[in-house]
């Protein structure tokens, strides 16, 4: 059984390598981008990442609709 110890070491090395590969693949940019979109337009349900962009969107796309109260103090 001279190969026994080498086999165990090889299996451990392979398991570590597989875990590294899985970790590298685990980051999903699409899901991360979706999670970053936290502001939702009340009129058209479009999602935006920050209040500045949200206010610009609201002023350009929905000029006749009154501004939501959460956007009143935001500087665009």
Automatic annotation (TrEMBL):
Localisation: Cytoplasm; Nucleus
UniProt keyword list: Cytoplasm, Metal-binding, Nucleus, Repressor, Translation regulation, Zinc, Zinc-finger
Matches recorded under Gene3D superfamilies: At2g23090-like (4.10.1050.10)
Name listed for the protein in its UniProt record: Zinc finger protein 706
Gene Ontology MF, one: zinc ion binding
GO aspect biological process, one term: regulation of translation
Biased composition (Basic residues): 14-25
Segments of skewed composition (Low complexity): 1-13
Keyword Metal-binding recorded: yes
Function comment: Transcription repressor involved in the exit of embryonic stem cells (ESCs) from self-renewal. Acts by repressing expression of KLF4.
Domain Small EDRK-rich factor-like N-terminal positions: 1-37
Any matching Pfam family: SERF-like_N
Signal sequence segment: none
Transmembrane segments: none
Start and end residues of each stretch annotated as Disordered: 1-32, 53-76
Basic and acidic residues composition bias: residue spans: 53-62
GO cellular component, one term: cytoplasm
C2H2-type domain segment(s): 39-61
InterPro entries for the chain: MBS1/2-like, SERF-like_N, ZNF706/At2g23090_sf, Znf_C2H2_type
Matching PANTHER family: GEO09665P1-RELATED (PTHR21213), ZINC FINGER PROTEIN 706 (PTHR21213:SF0)
Native source organism of the sequence: Gorilla gorilla gorilla
Chief location bin: cytoplasm
